[in-house]
Specification:
By secondary structure, the chain is mainly alpha-helical. Helices cover about 75% and strands about 0% of the residues. The protein has one domain. The two termini are about 25 Å apart.
């Protein structure tokens, strides 16, 4: 079942790539600066977090005597979460937003969530690339350990797309899912150590937070960028296994409900 979808996606790779290029162009259409906004927006985010938290608020990470440590910790977590959140939020509406396309054209509907991941990956690559350049400028680049990024990013993307497909299909049949997922994402954000280090939490709450699969992903980025250490591969392996399981469930759900979706759109 899974290999069949992979073959279908490969067969429609031209459609997927063309859609990615079109979506990127449409995003900045009729703007004076055009695609330059793809650089300016994440750059503004990085600068704001850096200036406010390191210079104005003088925020510090426990155990690290570095004025920039908390800003790097915060930026790495926020940018990572933005990638995850964008995939989830756009996937949950992708079938509804493309209802006319689904009804008029005969193509694997599973291409649509993959296009969502591609668009999010482009934005994330630009944002994180700028962040790495910023770290080089500050003399805080972590070194060769950044080679672990693709592995962590892949685990994150697989988990996000599997979860997003399940939400997207469910939202076609039950529109409350689209409304409730926004609330879910807010709680999920605050139960992930992005704004705060997990070490400050009481033991009982920390044990509960560690059940969150996004903790290992976000912590991996923070471990690399803030501490220059390898991520916790054992913890990431558990999340990777969960991500694959969620993807299999998503594709099974898609196979079972794809025929009924057209009637519900």
């Amino acid at each position: 079942m899974f290999s069949k979808h992979i073959i279908a996606l490969w067969s429609y790779r031209g459609f997927i790539l063309g859609s990615l290029m079109r979506d990127f162009q449409m995003r900045y259409r009729k703007s004076v600066l055009g695609s330059l906004w793809a650089i300016l927006n994440p750059l503004a985010t990085i600068l704001i977090y850096t200036v406010i938290f390191s210079q104005l608020m003088k925020a510090r990470l426990p155990g690290i005597n570095d004025t920039m440590a908390y800003s790097i910790y915060l930026c790495s977590g926020v940018l990572t979460w933005s990638f995850f959140s964008e995939i989830i939020q756009r996937s949950q509406n992708v079938f509804l937003e493309n209802a006319n396309l689904i009804k008029k054209l005969n193509f694997p509907r599973i291409c649509l969530p993959i296009i969502v991941v591609g668009n999010a990956a482009v934005s994330f690559s630009i944002s994180f690339g700028l962040f790495l350049v910023f770290l080089i400028f500050l003399g805080k680049f972590p070194g060769w350990i950044v080679l672990a990024f693709p592995v962590v990013c892949a685990i994150q993307a697989v988990f996000a797309i599997g979860f997003g497909i399940i939400l997207g299909i469910g939202n076609v049949f039950f529109r409350d899912i689209g409304q409730g997922s926004g609330i879910l994402m807010q709680f999920w954000f605050w139960f992930t150590p992005i704004i705060y280090p997990i070490s400050i939490l009481p033991e009982a709450i920390r044990s509960l937070v560690l059940l969150n699969p996004m903790v290992s992903v976000v912590s991996a980025y923070q471990s690399i960028l803030v501490y220059g250490n390898q991520p916790d591969w054992l913890s990431l392996a558990s999340t990777a296994l969960l991500a694959v399981l969620v993807c299999f469930l998503a594709f099974h759900f898609y196979k079972k409900r794809s025929g009924e979706m057209v009637d519900e759109l």
